[in-house]
């Protein structure tokens, strides 16, 4: 990636403002950090408000019109031919997602955080060294590309037919369903201490609950919440064995909402109460 030109712009005016153009050899990256805008590109009209991120390919005219009194945006004209970048179909799909894509996800938050960091680079003392600035922005943009491609693939996957969802990659890799299930497993492994709901899980991979439960059980032999419970129980055993934490503290650290529910689940799993398990030296009832 080589930056040809950039601009970090803020307008506060009730007057209509338009900008745009066409770049024969360069992509344009347009990050709307705040305000409402209308972007016209390749016969598409996008009306959205910041934060929003758009990509435009070479030789495609575009026009940006501000709709709110105040708005801020960063544009970067860059040569991408020597770097792995988004395909035209991925760019079109991503730009479409900018219309009202407000559902929270880690990947989307990471895209916005990274673009804000890039915007800060252009406003910092680093901007006086064009070579350093170019390398930093190129590195950050590669991360954005990976995240954007991931979000686009999930969006396409959510709209795919079941037979397509189950199809494996040509190289024998994991199917999209397997990748989605593993993504949820990693999410639960990282956030088992939180109050995770079914909506939290379905929002991450855009599947309806019944389908998610079915494919998760087919692949892992248990439902998502059975897997989550196993993570919490394993964490509880570790705390009981290796620390002097109270049962109440362990409840808080393992994501359960009450000590009574935690104790009931623990006894159903191991045959003894958490306190008795600790007194037994880390042994369940059937272990003697």
UniProtKB/TrEMBL annotation:
<keyword id="KW-0805">Transcription regulation</keyword>
<dbReference type="InterPro" id="IPR018060">
    <property type="entry name" value="HTH_AraC"/>
</dbReference>
<feature type="domain" description="HTH araC/xylS-type">
    <location>
        <begin position="182"/>
        <end position="280"/>
    </location>
</feature>
<dbReference type="InterPro" id="IPR011051">
    <property type="entry name" value="RmlC_Cupin_sf"/>
</dbReference>
<dbReference type="Pfam" id="PF12833">
    <property type="entry name" value="HTH_18"/>
</dbReference>
<keyword id="KW-0804">Transcription</keyword>
<dbReference type="InterPro" id="IPR014710">
    <property type="entry name" value="RmlC-like_jellyroll"/>
</dbReference>
<keyword id="KW-0238">DNA-binding</keyword>
<dbReference type="InterPro" id="IPR009057">
    <property type="entry name" value="Homeodomain-like_sf"/>
</dbReference>
<dbReference type="InterPro" id="IPR020449">
    <property type="entry name" value="Tscrpt_reg_AraC-type_HTH"/>
</dbReference>
<protein>
    <submittedName>
        <fullName>AraC family transcriptional regulator</fullName>
    </submittedName>
</protein>
């Amino acid at each position: 990636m080589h930056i040809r030109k950039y601009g970090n712009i803020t307008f506060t005016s009730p007057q209509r403002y338009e900008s745009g153009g066409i770049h024969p050899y360069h992509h344009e990256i347009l990050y709307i950090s705040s305000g409402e805008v209308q972007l016209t590109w390749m016969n598409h009209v996008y009306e959205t408000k910041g934060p929003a991120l758009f990509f435009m390919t070479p030789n495609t005219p575009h026009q940006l019109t501000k709709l709110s009194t105040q708005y801020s945006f960063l544009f970067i004209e860059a040569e991408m031919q020597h770097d792995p970048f988004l395909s035209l179909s991925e760019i079109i799909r991503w730009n479409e997602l900018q219309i009202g894509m407000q559902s929270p996800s880690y990947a989307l938050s990471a895209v916005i955080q990274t673009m804000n960091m890039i915007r800060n680079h252009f406003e910092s003392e680093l901007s006086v060294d064009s070579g350093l600035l170019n390398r930093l922005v190129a590195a950050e943009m590669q991360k954005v590309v990976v995240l954007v491609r991931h979000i686009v693939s999930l969006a396409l996957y959510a709209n795919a037919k079941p037979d397509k969802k189950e199809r494996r990659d040509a190289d024998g890799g994991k199917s999209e369903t397997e990748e989605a299930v593993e993504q949820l497993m990693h999410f639960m492994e990282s956030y088992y201490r939180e109050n995770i709901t079914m909506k939290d899980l379905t929002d991450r991979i855009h599947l309806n609950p019944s389908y998610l439960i079915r494919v998760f059980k087919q692949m892992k032999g248990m439902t998502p919440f059975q897997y989550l419970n196993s993570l919490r129980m394993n964490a509880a055993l570790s705390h009981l064995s290796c620390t002097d934490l109270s049962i109440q503290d362990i409840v808080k650290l393992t994501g359960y909402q009450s000590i009574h529910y935690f104790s009931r689940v623990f006894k159903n799993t191991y045959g003894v109460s958490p306190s008795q398990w600790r007194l037994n030296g880390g042994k369940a009832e059937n272990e003697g």
